[in-house]
Amino acid sequence: MASSSQPNTAGFKVTGWVSTLGGFVARNPGLWKRLGNFETKIANDAIEDIEVDRPIYVAGLARSGSTKLLEILASHPDVASHRYRDYPLVFTPYLWNRWLDKVPQRTEQAAERTHADGIKVTSESPEAFEEVLWMAYFPEIHDSTRSSVLTRDTSNPSFERFYREHIRKLLAVRKASRYIAKGNYNVSRLGYLRRIFDDARFVIPVRDPVWHIASLMKQHRLFLAGERDHPEALTHMQRVGHFEFGLDRRVINLDDDEAVADIEACWERGDDVLGWARYWALIHNHIMDRLEGDEDLRKAALVVRFEDMCQAPRENLEGVLEHCGLPIDTAFLDDAASGIHFPSYYEPGFTPQEMQIIQTETAGAARRLGYPFTQPA
Question: Is Transferase among this UniProt entry's keywords (predicted)?
C-alpha cells in the first residue's frame, strides 16, 4: 500500500498541565481509588436514588465507526458519557465536574481531533476514558502475553462496586438516566459486562475489511509520526489506555497466544497488511464466537455494519435507538442521520497482491458478519 505524504502532527501535542496531572494520577492508582470512594460518600445524597439502567456499550475494533455512534448516542438527551473534560481526574467525576462548572469557561471552537478524520471536538465532546478505571483494577489487562478475555466467571468485587458508583456519579453530574461508553477493548469483556449489568445493551460496529484495514493502517502511520514528533503523546496514550496504534501498538490477547505472536511477528517484519488482516479476522471471529455461544448476550447485542449505516442512515440509526431502548424523536433522528456518510478523505490503495492477502485472511470472518467478499465501490 503506497504511503501518503508526511502528516501534520500538531494535534498530538499534550498541554503541560494535562501531562503533569495525568502523570500523577497514573502513578498513584491506589490513591485515586481511595479518593473516588471518598467522593462517593460526599455525593451520597445526590446519587442515592440513581440506578444504573441498561448501560450502553459501543464495542468494536478501532476505525469501525464507533466514534460516530458514540457521538450520536451521547447527544441523546437521556444519555451521559465521559467527555474530554473528564481527564485527567477520571476517578472523581462528581467533584471534578462540579469544580469545572464553577470556573470561568473559555470560548471553544471545535477542532479536528488527533486522528485527522474529519471529526471535530471540544472539551464537551464524548470520549472513551473509562479505560483508565479498567487499568487501575486490572493492571495486566493490556499485557499481550496474557489473555485479556473477561467472562461471566470473572470476579472483581472492588472494581464492580467502584465502577457502578462511578457511573451513578457521572449520571448525577450530567443529569441523565442512561450511561454510554465506547471501548474498543470491551470486545474482550462482553460476558463480564453482561454479568455486572444484566440489562446492558451492546452496539457492535463492524466494517468491510478492505476499507477497515486501510483506515487502521492510515491511523497507525499517523500515530507513529505524531508520537515521534511529540514523545509526550506516547506517554499520554499509555496513560489513557489507547494501544491501538503508534509506537506502543499492542494486540488484544483473546486467549490465543499463538495468534498474538503471529500478528506481532508480521508487524515486526513490516508485513502490515498481513498482520492487520489476521488481526481483523481474530477480533471479529472472537466477537461472533461469543455472540453465537451465548444466547442472552446475542439478544443484548446489535451488530451494525458501517456500510449499511452510511447507505441508509436514518433507518439503521432508528434500529440502534430501538435496540438501546432510547426514545426516538423525529427531529433528533433526522439531524443525526444527516451527519452519517462514507469517508471522503482517503481511498484504499492496496495492490492486487495485498487485496488477495486481505481476502484470504478475512473471508471467513467477513462472511459471518454478512460480507460477501467484494471490494466496495
Answer: yes
Entry pTM:
0.94
Q: What is the pLDDT of residues 49-76, one digit of tens each?
A: 999 999 999 999 999 999 999 999 999 9
CATH classification of the domain holding 102: 3.40.50.300
- 22 within 8 A of 88, measured Cβ to Cβ: yes
Cell of 356: 488477495
Asked, for residue 193, whether it belongs to a domain, the answer is yes
- For 182, how many CA atoms within 13 A lie in the half-sphere containing its CB? 24
- Owning domain of residue 364: 10-368
Q: Residue 319 is placed in which grid cell? A: 434500529
| HSE (side-chain half, CA atoms, 13 Å) at 1 | 26
213 phi/psi in degrees, rounded to 5 = -65, -35
> Helices marked H in the chain — which ranges?
16-27, 29-42, 44-47, 66-74, 93-102, 131-137, 157-174, 190-196, 209-229, 231-240, 257-268, 272-292, 295-300, 306-311, 313-324, 330-338, 352-368
